[in-house]
Design goal:
715 residues, alpha+beta, Phosphorylase Kinase, domain 1, membrane, protein serine/threonine kinase activity, transferase, Tyr_kinase_AS, serine/threonine-protein kinase
Length: 715
């Protein structure tokens, strides 16, 4: 479990629905959190996935949770079991499932390299789980190393989790996230790039994650949509993977559906047969044909050496031991008795940048001293230090005339990469590293592809785009430049920066429905290999005019509650229909005992209604407002029709035909007065925005708490 944070949805010891006691946080994401909990009735340990408040009222996310809960119909030990989907009185929606104790494959990849037999066992187990899911017409669509948990650390107990974007393949069924792409690009099958997913798509993902686990690195899927689609049409690079794991991965990841494994059941059968055969161990497979051929050639060269020795004996006999003959034959004798170079098969170069306390390393073959000197010189330019003489071994068996020049030139082509690893094996090159930026990564790829073409190497690249750690302020600088409807905020940015592969979640307002694409484009050159997720409110110009005057403000746990005036029930969606009577409460922690409260409605009719203070009620001191209920002070600012009938001074609202659109309730908690004079009951957007800008500039730090909530009216 990880450390608790003040903004967490639930806290340790909290009891949900009189049943589940929270024990701690297991993980956090852009839309919610996952907790470990204990069922107080049965004692069973469970995992609870909870949606953040802003998503618990959105139909799409609720539907996603409901669909994931429907996975409870799948009864298989290799598939996580779902129990129920529930909602708390406070509005949070949560999903209860089995707690799987153990690391994910992604966790294990960070710790060690998984062995081939372990991966074959995992493949067999996961395929069994997929058989059960596919029988129910469910395609996972997001199978990846972080969605496979090794229960108790055992490959034999691998368990599939997180069916949040699973696709129902039944006739007429639809997916939660539509028929567009869903999943992780690195593991997605080619057909998923076109929005299509079927059972064999999960098999491709299984093969891709097995390859990633064997190599210990996430496969590179491309940087642009075009590159991603092109790469998905190519076979994955499985050179060096031992059999039968290699054959299994090739079968599972065949780009064409017709050539791919036909079903999860077929995979279970074939892997089961392989596991019953000889143990699968790294490095214990038969050598490739080309290696065997080269070794045969070496044997021929050794026979030639024996023949030369025989010639030498005959020449010495002819010389009769005389000094004149000996002097004449000496150069020829020395040349014949010179030891031949050993044969290297395969012919290799391996170089690493090292890291931490480890120094850069080089181990290579070369055909002669001049080539060896060139390789050492190239290494020194990239590593920043010379290579030892012994780092390069002279050997026969060079696979092509351009190998030596290519080995010397590869270091210059890799300039600009950090943490580089260069491996040449015959005419195949595998090169990885970290580029400081997207632009630097594109340049390095272009240089290395040019190098490979020039020297006739088959090239495999795994270049990540940095920076290695991304400062949240670098992201915020970009967001501040492009914001059009108030501040764009990063959700829970890590204090020590975003690591490679992290997800950056952005919240805020937008005028255009496709503004999320604008954000992604603007950040592309800054974030490197990280993912951007946006949660934007598409608002009208009136709301954006006011939001544009607001800097990022502290919340101080302030929140806004919306309800139905006719029933008193909470309205989680914030949507009200014709004839309905919205009521609004501002919720303040009871332990906040100082400050002044100011509340207004920014309406979609170019009007701001000042609710507190107003013409009838001038009080703003929070200790004199509302009532304390448990740990919360509740201050009503927009009242029901019944309350208004009892006291006509209390402001109320009813949805009238034609007055449809989005409005925003905003509340400020301040140390002193927000404005010098009481604002009118209603005023224009421009008037209010001007006054707000003035007071924010004149009284920095006056606002100690802020909350807002969209209220939408529809027919």
């Amino acid at each position: 479990m990880i450390d608790a944070l003040p903004g967490d949805i639930f806290h340790r010891g909290q009891i949900l629905n009189n049943t589940y006691e929270i024990e701690g946080v297991l993980g956090r994401g852009g839309t919610g959190e996952v907790y470990r909990a204990r069922n107080l009735i049965s004692g069973r340990i469970v995992a609870i996935k909870a949606l953040n408040a802003q998503f618990s009222g959105q139909d799409g996310y609720i539907e996603l949770m409901k669909r994931e809960e429907q996975m409870r119909d799948i009864r298989d030990d290799a598939v996580v079991r779902y129990t129920e989907c529930s909602r708390m009185d406070q509005g949070h929606v949560f999903l209860v499932m089995d707690y799987i104790a153990g690391p994910s494959i992604a966790d294990e990849m960070l710790r060690r390299r998984l062995e081939p037999r372990e991966l074959m066992i995992i493949a067999h187990r996961v395929a069994e789980g997929l058989v059960a899911a596919h029988k129910q017409g469910i395609v996972h669509r997001d199978l990846s190393p972080d969605n496979i948990i090794l229960r108790d650390g055992s490959p034999e107990k691998a368990t599939i989790i997180d069916f949040g974007i699973a696709k129902d393949t039944g006739e007429g069924a639809r997916t939660i996230v539509g028929n567009d792409f869903a999943g992780k690009y690195e593991y997605a099958a080619p057909e998923q790039m076109e929005g299509r997913a079927e059972p064999r798509s999960d098999l491709y993902a299984l093969g891709a994650l097995l390859l990633a686990a064997w190599k210990g690195q996430v496969p590179f899927a491309g940087m642009t949509p075009g590159e991603m689609i092109r790469r998905k049409q190519e076979r994955l690079e499985t050179g060096g993977v031992p059999e039968p794991l290699k054959g299994l991965i090739d079968w599972l990841t065949e780009p064409a559906l017709a050539g791919r494994a036909p079903s999860a059941a077929a995979v279970v059968e074939q892997v089961g047969k392989a596991l019953k055969g000889p143990a699968v161990e790294r490095g214990r497979t038969a050598p490739p044909t080309k290696v065997t051929t080269r070794m045969d050639a070496a044997a021929g060269r050794r026979s030639g050496g024996s023949f030369l020795a025989l010639v030498l004996v005959l020449l010495l006999a002819m010389a009769g031991g005389g000094a004149w003959y000996a002097g004449l034959l000496q150069p020829f004798i020395e040349r014949l008795t010179e030891q031949p170079l050993p044969v290297a098969a395969p012919y290799t170069l391996s170089a690493s940048a090292g890291g931490g306390l480890a120094a850069p390393t080089l181990a290579a073959h070369a055909p002669d001293a001049a080539a060896a000197d060139a390789i050492r010189a190239g290494f020194a330019t990239l590593a920043g230090q010379p290579a030892a003489e012994a780092a390069v071994t002279l050997a026969q068996g060079m696979p092509g005339p351009s190998w030596a020049s290519g080995a010397a030139a590869v270091f210059d082509a890799a300039q600009g990469l950090d943490g580089w690893q260069i491996d040449l094996s015959d005419m195949t090159a595998r090169i990885s590293g970290l580029a400081p930026t997207l632009a630097a990564g594109d340049k390095a790829r272009a240089n290395l592809e040019t190098w490979a073409n020039l020297h006739s190497f088959a090239l495999g690249l795994d270049i990540a785009n940095g920076p290695r750690i991304l400062a949240p302020q670098d992201v915020q600088d970009v967001l501040d430049d492009i914001a059009t409807c108030g501040p764009l905020i990063q959700v829970d940015p890590p204090a020590d920066g975003y690591a490679l592969g992290a997800t950056i979640t952005i919240e805020g307002g937008a005028l255009e429905p496709d503004f999320n694409a604008t954000i992604s484009t603007a950040l592309a050159g800054v974030i490197g290999d990280r993912r951007v997720v946006t949660s934007l409110d598409v608002l009208n110009q009136n709301l954006c005019t006011v939001r544009n005057e607001l800097p990022p403000l502290p919340s101080n746990a302030l929140s806004i509650w919306l309800g139905q005036g006719s029933t008193g029930q909470a309205n989680l969606t914030g949507v009200f229909r014709t004839g309905e009577n919205p009521v609004v409460d501002v919720l303040i922690p009871a332990n906040v005992t100082t400050g002044r409260l100011w509340v207004m409605v920014v309406d979609n009719t170019n009007t701001v209604f000042n609710l507190l203070p107003n013409a009838n009620f001038a009080e703003t001191d929070i200790t004199r407002l509302g009532t304390v209920e448990g740990s919360t002070r509740r201050v009503r600012v927009l009242f029901s029709v019944t309350e208004n009938q009892a006291d006509s001074r209390l402001p109320k609202a009813e949805v009238n035909q034609g007055d449809y659109g989005k409005s925003e309730i905003i509340a400020f908690l301040t140390e002193g007065d927000l404005f010098d004079t009481r604002r009118p009951g209603d005023e224009s957007i421009a008037s209010f925005a001007e006054a707000l800008a003035t007071t924010l500039a004149e009284r920095p730090g006056n606002i100690v708490g802020f909350a807002s909530r969209i209220l939408e009216t529809r027919p």
